Amino acid sequence: MKSLLLLSLTLFLIACKTSATANNQEYSEQESFLIEAIQNTSYSAVIKHTRVEVIPSNDQDFPEQHIYYAKVIETLNGKELTTLSYSMFVEEGEDAVIDQSPIIVTLCKNGEGFYWPGTGAQFESTPALINLAKKNVTRVKSHPEQGSHCNY
Questions:
Q1: Is the dihedral of CA 24, 26, 29, 35 positive or negative?
Q2: Residue 152 placed within a domain
Q3: Cα 152 to Cα 148: distance, rounded to the nearest angstrom
Q4: Can you give the pLDDT of all 152 residues of the chain as single tens digits?
């Protein structure tokens, strides 16, 4: 009985360690994606979406445009704002979903306003990721390829 209990405990601890290692690897990848996104876009912030509009687009590859509106909780890089809107070109019929949770976004800007640079521009708004973003903003100002995720 004692051996069975020790075996069960050992298997449980191995499973916990494997799970923790997988979570740390995933988090590490998310950190590197966040740093890259911040260094290669014009603006980043912690936001909370308030609404979204779906409008027709003139782009034949992406016939719809979603316009997202948000309250800015904290600007991480770029001009301090209290609210913002940004556009996203999408395929026809793509769902316009908004999550009510605060998130970190990295956005590009052109003469028409902010726009979504594509996959990998939205992140969880955890204290660790927010701190990581803040630490890497200073690198952005001198990063020679700033904006490379953007189609200026």
A1: negative
A2: no
A3: 9
A4: 444 333 333 333 344 443 344 444 555 778 888 988 888 888 999 999 999 998 887 777 777 889 999 999 999 999 999 999 999 888 777 788 888 899 999 999 888 899 988 877 889 999 999 999 988 876 555 444 445 768 64
Q: What is the extent of the structural domain holding 11?
A: 2-142
Angle between helix axes 127-142 and 2-39 (nearest 10 degrees) is 30
CATH of the domain at 48: 2.40.50.120
AA identity, residue 48: K
Structure tokens that stand for 18 in this block: 């494997």
Torsion angles phi and psi, residue 58, rounded to 5: -90, -5
Residue with tokens 């952005």: 140
